[in-house]
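Give me structure tokens for this 111-residue protein.
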Amino acid sequence: MTEVQLDTDALGREGTEIARYQVTSGERLVISRRGYGGAELVDAPANGEGPAYHVDRGWQDGGMMEAFLKDYLAQAECLDRCPMSPAAIGIVVDSTESDEVTDLLGAMWRR
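Here you go.
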């Protein structure tokens, strides 16, 4: 993880790279920026090619955001893809034993 103090009050609206990770499809960045109501996180390809995903928003506490980020990066490593991508969500849905989740989400995540 990029060494950045996760001070949500110090983040600008333009965005600050707070993490970088590698998956088979390429290097990705987690960017945090100050939004209305707190910091938000976006996951984007480092080379700018491909989809970016909104991860979460409303962070007021840098320590809590850092704990979330560590878990998010562990998920990326385990899934070998952006955890917010439809393919990653499909893997999680397929690995659950709950038919209700599959019925709820249906084929929408299986792209």
